Each structure stands twice: as C-alpha cells, then as structure tokens.
UniProtKB/TrEMBL annotation:
It comes from Lojkania enalia. Gene3D superfamilies: 3.30.70.100. Residues 47-128 form the EthD domain. It holds the Pfam family EthD. This is EthD domain-containing protein. GO terms for molecular function: oxidoreductase activity.
C-alpha cells in the first residue's frame, strides 16, 4: 500500500516527510535531534512476589543502582525510563476489551551507540542491577528500536 502524504505544515522540520525515519529522537531546547538506540526490557514478577514489594524495589532500589552507576554518565546514557502496570491498570485495560502485554514493568534505556551500550551493560555495576531485579522476575524480554 502506498502512503499518501497529507498536506501538513510541520512545526518541527526534523519531523518533515523528507527526514530519515526510524530513529528515537531526543529534542534539546535547540531542537536539534539526536539519533539514539532504545532498549526496552520487559519484566514479569515471580508469582511469590507481591505487587507492592515489586513496585517499591523496582522504583527505588533498581532505579538507584542504574542511575547511580559510574558508567551511567561515562557512557552518556541519554534517557532512562521505568513503566509499571498496577493490578488496577491491568483490570481496567481488560474491562475495556483490550489485550494486555503479560508483563509487570518495562525499563527503557536510550544510548547513542552500540559501543555505549556494550560499555554500560558489561560493567560490574550493571550486573548488580541485574541481580537486584533478577531476584524478583522470572521472565524478561527485550525490544530494540
């Protein structure tokens, strides 16, 4: 199917039709785009871990281990985001007749290059974060974009 472009005046030239696609972009105040690689990690908690405990550990301990690691700044991690689905959110989505991904949380890390990711992900501090969250999850999946 051929995409028919609509007549649209773009506010941000970086998003115009003729610009290269498929890059995560981070806009600074100057509105200069920076291409990034986004790694999204999906986690499902162990059945014996309750939601409150998982969420507290994920939001506090896991975050602190990630952001406080020396290589977080050395490797110039561009962005780190955590998303958590509460049981109430899951029930609401189901009640709306929508299909839900069977995961409890997702961490996304934006890096400028594969080399930055390799340097960060092979550090001892990154391993501590994996051990930290690993005591609570039994399933993890990765999506790269």
């Amino acid at each position: 199917m051929v995409h028919n472009k609509i007549d649209h005046k773009f506010t941000y030239p970086q998003l115009a039709w003729d610009q290269k696609e498929n890059y995560q972009r981070k806009f600074f105040y100057s509105l200069l785009p920076i291409s990034c690689i986004k790694l999204s990690f999906f986690f499902k908690k162990l059945p014996n871990v309750d939601d409150d405990h998982f969420q507290m550990h994920y939001n506090h301990v896991h975050s602190d281990l990630t952001v406080a690691s020396k290589n977080f700044n050395v490797c110039k991690i561009q962005r780190y985001v955590q998303n958590y689905q509460t049981p109430e959110m899951k029930e609401k989505v189901k009640s709306l007749g929508m299909e839900l991904l069977d995961y409890d949380a997702c961490s996304s890390i934006w890096v400028r290059s594969w080399e930055d990711w390799e340097k960060f992900s092979t550090s001892d501090e990154y391993a501590k974060g994996r051990v930290s969250i690993g005591t609570m999850i039994f399933d993890g999946m990765l999506m790269v974009s």
